[in-house]
Each structure stands twice: as structure tokens, then as C-alpha cells.
Amino acid sequence: MVRGLGTPRLDEPNTPVVLVPGPGAPGCLLRTPERLAQSGPVRLLGVPGSGDPSGPACPETLGPLADTVARWLATVPPGPVVLAGHSTGARVALHAAVRVPGRVRALVLPAPHVPAPPAAVAATARRAHPYGRP
């Protein structure tokens, strides 16, 4: 359930920012971690299909990618994160946030690739964790 929309506070110490690139397009975010690291910890996730061409292929649907990100969020960072997904990674981040809402403090979706009808996107967003503080 979305409790509100707003700008997350990134000035809180040690709130990690986790970046989810669109499959096949991690280059768009390569300089972003360096800039964000001035404010706190940052991770650029290497989801299948976003890195080495000889590595694992991107699945045909977004569900397995969202599951991978959700499993990582549930086990690796010490607390809630600001989850940012770019391009198709925005859809992956949104679905991952629905799977582990307690691990996502805020959701940032720059330049989302959303081929679904707006009503479907809104319905998924309503199931996601709040974009700001709970």
C-alpha cells in the first residue's frame, strides 16, 4: 500500500542506495554510484543480463529478476534501502519492493520503461512499500 508520495530524505546516515539497471544497459548508471557515494553507501546490482556477455542471460520475464533482487535485499543490506531502478530496472525494482516491503525505505524510478497500461502500473504501485518513511 502506498502511504504517500514525496522526496525521500537521503541525508540520514548510512541509508544505502541500491541501483537496479535495466537489463543490457548498466552503462547508463556507471558514474552514478560515484556521485551518490558522497552521501552514503551505494550498490550497483549486477542482475542477470546486465553485465558480462558471457555471464547469465536475462530471463524472458521480469519475475525472476525481481525475485533475485528481493532475495538480495532480504539478506545482504543491514536495513532498509533506497531502491532505484532505471529503465526496465524500474519495473524490476517496483516488483522487488512489493516482495520485500520492509527492506525498502524509498523507491526511485528514473526513466522507467513501462509498456503496461497506466492502470496496471498504478495497481502495482499501490501494492509497493511507501515511497517515503513508513
Compact overview of the structure:
This is Pimeloyl-ACP methyl ester carboxylesterase. It comes from Streptomyces griseomycini. 30% of the residues lie in helices and 13% in strands.
Explain how this protein is built:
The protein has one domain (20-48, 56-127). 33% of the residues are buried. The chain is α/β, with parallel strands linked by helices. Helix 2 crosses helix 3 (88-99). Strands 2-1-3-4 form a four-stranded parallel β-sheet. The protein has helices at residues 32-36, 63-75, 88-99, 118-127, and strands at 17-20, 42-44, 81-85, 104-108. Helix 3 links the parallel strand 3 and strand 4 (104-108). The model has no long low-confidence stretch (mean pLDDT 77). The protein is built from four helices and four strands. InterPro entries: AB_hydrolase_1, AB_hydrolase_fold. It comes from Streptomyces griseomycini. This is Pimeloyl-ACP methyl ester carboxylesterase. Residues 47-125 form the AB hydrolase-1 domain. One of its GO terms (molecular function) is catalytic activity.
